[in-house]
Design brief:
398 residues, 6-stranded antiparallel beta sheet, Acetylcholine Binding Protein, Chain: A, 2 domains, alpha+beta, single chain
Length: 398
């Protein structure tokens, strides 16, 4: 019952406060307000100085409460706080003993002169972002005006190190860039470098590169990160972030590594039927020794032409079971048997020539594979050195 009455009383007081839009002060305060404000109706406009040649000193302080929002893309910041403004108005002075010993008085800021203070680099559509509150006036004319403010200002910043806060943020970028050189460690026979596919459309053969390689995956990931970074960075910036330069270098290296992988695969798949090994490649000492090591399984075949002869007779060794038989086996010297032997000899010569040519082709294919392996390792070393140099320069700038 008591709580119900208490709630009803609070509701009644709220209704009274809402309906009454003014509060009746004491007689001394009303008399003082009439004395100060009814002197001149142009008081909010005129500068409060006794002589126009005098300057009016205004003290301004800003107490920052919080940073509400920071828009890095648009280079804008929103802050809230309290602005403390102090000045002296000679026309708002009184003697406390004449007005009931009133020392201070609160006057609406719209009825007195206030300094025109605006944010120079504001980014808000509304120039006046302060809330009109009462000003505290002392009997000697000192005025204290503390309005709450909400500023939205342009905040251009140097994005050269964006979004790096410390050098530890470069480690993920470096790990992504390392994927570029890891592709050179894969063997061309593994099928993980680049997969070539042939498609036929209207009797036209088209060779497509199937995107199944570490270089292309790294290239696509760097492109994706660059697109995400472009959405974060301000479009009208005068500086280029270090991470953007780093990603551009990694992107170029990834594209070059894809081209290098295609060339290495082209060398790996060459043979003697369509390409001939240049004469200067085996002349190098290192390649010459390595090619000899790879060719240790060669078969030494006599290059002399094969000669076949059939003797007219062959002696047969005697046997204890032999009875009145000749000890010689005579060869049938007919023209038909000679033609068959010539045919067999010619076929054997063809097989020998085919075996020799196949062995030669295999040796040349091994030579091309070794050249591809050397180019693969050379690209690995060169790309690793370039990547380490780019990363070291990035660390030094950060």
């Amino acid at each position: 019952m008591f709580h119900t009455i208490q709630r009803q009383l609070k509701l009644f007081l709220l209704i009274i406060c809402y309906c009454c839009n003014f509060i009746i002060g004491g007689p001394d305060q009303l008399r003082l307000l009439k004395h100060l404000l009814a002197v001149n109706e142009f008081k909010p406009i005129a500068r409060p100085v006794q002589n126009e040649s005098y300057t009016l000193s205004v003290t301004i302080n800003l107490a920052l409460q919080q940073i509400i929002n920071f828009d890095g893309k648009n280079e804008a910041i929103v802050i809230s706080g309290w602005m403390t403004i102090k000045w002296n108005d000679y026309s708002l002075r009184w003697k406390p003993e004449e007005f009931g010993n009133i020392q201070t008085l609160r006057i609406p800021s719209t009825q007195i002169w206030t300094p025109d203070i605006f944010l120079y680099n504001t980014a808000d559509e509304k120039f006046d972002t302060t809330v009109k509150v009462n000003a505290v006036v002392q009997h000697n004319g000192d005025i204290l005006y503390v309005p709450p403010v909400l500023f939205k200002s342009n905040c251009p910043f140097n994005i050269a190190l964006f979004p790096f806060v410390s050098t530890k943020k470069i480690l993920p970028c470096f790990l992504i860039s390392c994927m570029t050189i890891l592709g050179f460690l894969l063997s061309p026979d593994s099928g993980e470098k680049l997969t070539l596919r042939e498609l036929e459309f209207d009797d036209k053969r088209i060779v497509l590169i199937h995107f199944k390689s570490s270089e292309i995956t790294t290239l696509l990931s760097v492109v994706m990160f660059s697109l995400l970074l472009s959405d974060i960075l301000p479009p009208s910036s005068t500086a280029i972030p270090i991470i953007t330069v780093y990603f551009m270098c990694v992107m170029i290296l990834s594209a070059v590594s894809v081209v290098a992988s295609v060339l290495i695969l082209s060398l790996h798949n060459r043979n003697s039927s369509n390409y001939t090994m240049p004469s200067w490649i085996p002349s190098e000492p290192l390649l010459n020794n390595s090619l000899e090591l790879l060719s240790t399984n060669d078969i030494n075949i006599d290059k002399k032409p094969l000669e076949f002869a059939v003797p007219p007779a062959t002696e047969i060794h005697g046997s204890r079971y032999q009875q009145n038989a000749s000890n010689e086996l005579y060869t049938c010297d007919t023209e038909m048997n000679r033609s068959e032997l010539r045919f067999i000899i010619s076929q054997l010569a063809i097989l020998v020539n085919y075996s020799q040519q196949k062995e030669k082709d295999d040796n040349e294919s091994q030579d091309w594979q070794f050249v591809a392996m050397v180019m693969d390792r050379l690209c690995l070393v060169v790309f690793a050195i370039i990547m380490l140099l780019f990363t070291a320069l990035t660390f030094l700038k950060v």
